[in-house]
Amino acid sequence: MIERRAEDRTHLNITGLILVDEHRTMPCTIADRSATGVRVISASAEDLPDTFILTIDDTGEALVCRAAWRRVDQIGCIADALILEWLEASNSLRTPAWA
Predict the structure, then answer these.
(1) Per-residue pLDDT of the chain (99 residues; tens, 9 = 90+)
(2) What b/e readout covers 58-91, taking b as 16+ CB neighbours within 10 angstroms?
C-alpha cells in the first residue's frame, strides 16, 4: 500500500463522540491521528455530514472536522480547528468546586 499522508500518524484506539447537530450525537472510535487529521470508525460513517465536531474522551479536545474520504464504517477527516472554549469548559466541569 502506498502511503499518501504528508504527516506521520499515531495509531490510537480511543473513544469519542461526534456532534452531528445540536440534537444528535454518535459514539465513535478514533483509530489514528496525525497533525492535520483523524480517522474515525463509526457504524454510520456514510450518514455523517461533511463537517462536524469530534470530541475525544481521553484528552477532552473538540475538533472541527471536515470529511476527506468515507467508507461504510470509517471516515477520514481534516481537523480544521481545535475548539479551545470547549476545552476550557470541560476542564472546569472536571475540577471540583472545593478544589
Answers:
(1) 455 656 688 999 999 999 988 889 999 999 999 988 999 999 989 889 999 999 998 888 899 999 999 999 999 999 988 876 655 665 555 544 444
(2) eeebbbebebeeeeeebbbbebeeebeebeeeee
Q: Which three cell numbers stand for residue 70?
A: 468515507
| Grid cell of 4 as nine digits | 499518501
The three grid cell numbers given for residue 81, joined into one nine-digit string:
480547528
| CA-atom Rg of the chain in angstroms | 14
DSSP 43-92: TTGGGS-SEEEEEETTT--EEEEEEEEE-SSEEEEEEEEE-HHHHHHHHH
Q: How far apart are CA 60 and CA 4, in angstroms?
A: 29
Cell of 97: 468546586
What the block records as the C-alpha cell of 35 is 497533525
